[in-house]
Every structure is written in structure tokens, then in C-alpha cells.
């Protein structure tokens, strides 16, 4: 293969990789049981995504991407109103990431959560 063609091929692969969305891991242990008090939350890394794990009820957890889809500010869990709030533009989302109010037009990405033994596991959503 001529050197010029090889360089074009390598450059093309680099551009394609840079344009591809980052891949999420299959799953991560986001916390240990007892680590997050009832009615509170914790940020964690899910591969390249900053995510929020919410302990909403006994043995009930929710996980969503923590970056607001409107302005990329980090959303916060408000236990008193049981919603997610974006302080930048007063955006509001439910615990599954659906829009409740504000300027966002796209919901937050949500992730399946399971509790296995002492581990709270967040998984990549099923493709479909």
C-alpha cells in the first residue's frame, strides 16, 4: 500500500473515532449499600458521563445523566420536591429524567439500576 494511501486511511479512522459518541461501559458499581442516605444523591462517573444516583425510597434508586440537556449545567436532586433541578435556567426533571418544566426540550438519559448484595449497579440502557 502506498504511503500516502496509508496516511489517508489512518487519518480517516482517527476522524471517525473522534466523531463517534463515547461508549458507556456495560455496568459500574455506583455505590455500596448504605453509602447514600435515603432522600439524598451522589454523582459518579459512568464511563465518560457524569451521572447522578438518587436514593428515592428504601431499596429504590434512580440514575440519570447529570448534565442538563439545555445548557449542560449539572442537575441537582431536591428531596423536598422529589425532582431534579437545573440551577442555570430553572429546568426541572422527574427522577426518570423526563422534563417537568424549563427550557430543556430533551429528557435526561436514564440508566437501569439494580441492587446486588452490597452493590448498587448502574447499567447501560438496552439498545432498541
Question: Mind explaining what this structure looks like?
Answer:
The protein has one helix and eleven strands, in the order αβββββββββββ. The strands form three sheets. Strands 2-3-4-9 form a four-stranded antiparallel β-sheet, with no helix packed on it. A four-stranded antiparallel β-sheet has the order 5-6-7-8, with no helix packed on it. With 128 residues, it is mainly beta. 13% of the residues lie in helices and 41% in strands. The chain has one helix spanning 3-19; strands at residues 27-32, 40-46, 49-57, 60-65, 76-78, 83-86, 91-93, 99-101, 110-111, 113-116, 119-123.
Feature tags:
128 residues, mainly beta, 4-stranded antiparallel sheet, 13% helix, 41% strand, flat
Amino acid at each position: 500500500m502506498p504511503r500516502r494511501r496509508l496516511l489517508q486511511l489512518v487519518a480517516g479512522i482517527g476522524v471517525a473515532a473522534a466523531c463517534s459518541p463515547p461508549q458507556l461501559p456495560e455496568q459500574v458499581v455506583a455505590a455500596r449499600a448504605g453509602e447514600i442516605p435515603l432522600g439524598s444523591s451522589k454523582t459518579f462517573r459512568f464511563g465518560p458521563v457524569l451521572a447522578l444516583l438518587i436514593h428515592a425510597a428504601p431499596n429504590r434508586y434512580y440514575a440519570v445523566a447529570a448534565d442538563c440537556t439545555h445548557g449542560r449545567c449539572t442537575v441537582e436532586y431536591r428531596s423536598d420536591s422529589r425532582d431534579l433541578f437545573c440551577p442555570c435556567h430553572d429546568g426541572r426533571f422527574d427522577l426518570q429524567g423526563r422534563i417537568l418544566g424549563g427550557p430543556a426540550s430533551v429528557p435526561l438519559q436514564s440508566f437501569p439500576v439494580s441492587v446486588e448484595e452490597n452493590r448498587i449497579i448502574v447499567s447501560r440502557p438496552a439498545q432498541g
